[in-house]
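quick one, 89 residues, struct below
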Amino acid sequence: MADTVRKLAEQLRASGRPVRGPALFVCKHQVFGVGMFAADSVRAGDRLVEETGANGDAAEILVGTISSCHGALNLLQLGPRTPHDPPRT
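---
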């Protein structure tokens, strides 16, 4: 599933969209009936959003929560910085 989402991100970029990522949260079953994703993936996703927004340009970030067989994806859209926005640090 992760490879498919990465290919989607590549296709979106190839079509001219300013897409970064993907930021993937991969759910794995640790014990019967209990799925979770690693905290490291959350921190990596947070860094990706911070780095993408740092220059103030409009951008999109492909974000997904996936398992081995299904998932949910969305595009997080960052608007361009305006003169009224506080500086991004």
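The radius of gyration is 15 Å.
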